Amino acid sequence: MVEKSEANQFEFVKLDTLVAEKIDAPRYSYWKSVSRKFFSNKIAILMLIVLVIVLGFSFIQPLFSQYDFMDVDGINDFSKRYNWPSLENWFGTDANGHSLFDAVWAGARTSISIGLIATIITTVVGVIVGAIWGSSKKVDRFMIEVYNVISNVPTLLIVIVLSYAFGAGFWNLLLAMCATSWLGTAHFIRVQVMILRDREFNLASRCLGTPLHRLILKNILPYLISVIVTDVSRSLPGFISYEVFLSFLGVGLSTNVPSLGRLISKYTVNMSNYPYLFWIPVLVLAIVTISLYIVGQTLADASDPRTHM
Q1: SS3 state at 99
Q2: Which of 65, 144, 204, 236 could form a disulfide with 119 if both were Cys (CB 3.0 to 4.6 A apart)?
Q3: Measured between alpha carbons, how far is residue 50 from residues 23, 56, 284, 290, 293 in Å?
Q4: Is this model's pTM higher than 0.85 or not?
């Protein structure tokens, strides 16, 4: 058997410029990776479905029920009063013969709306102020003193005092809740910005003359998406709990506005005789806050690029 010569053992391949430009590494899409990571968690998917159902009932059902929280005249038919949950009345009826099902979703709409709007305001203001705070040493010296003064006063106490000062009302309560709450978010973002601003790529950008606003928007904030989502996932259930607690005390909202806190406060006297009037609003509140927290935390983990490895 004749061995091949070295010249015959190799074959020259022609250079293909088009093939040479192709990248063998798979394409990476940040948001596709986020969605893939999020939907791989079965508990998060279940909580998301529950949350969508709750939000649907909260914002759609009251449009058809026309529930009036201040209607104390009730129904003349006494047989419709204090009916326990059944197929006809899913959550039962109260002393006035009103459906608790209508009352709960009307109250949930108010509580969720306040928590959602307060979270958006607090997050937007907190992120903007925190980004400037962490990037400027002059602003830092002033804001740190403001933070040290306000952070030593309990937030709930500030909200209660401001609620009394502003008076009852939906927007007055929002103003009281957001007046100082953004400061905690701003301080949280300030710490994250200070960690990132001295990284090598930011030092190089500053040496090349990159403006401060572009440095913040392009080089720092995109890295803080998971951190911001984590803060939102904590703030949203927290604001809903604030509203419920204040409404339970009779502070903040007007007396004619239903909320989960108002319902819990109203039906506390029925805990022994008709416990469903008290515990069903409490259960709906628990479902809302827990589902929001789990979905938010899972989304925060999924939005962290380090989990996409």
Answers
A1: strand
A2: 236
A3: 42, 10, 11, 10, 12
A4: no
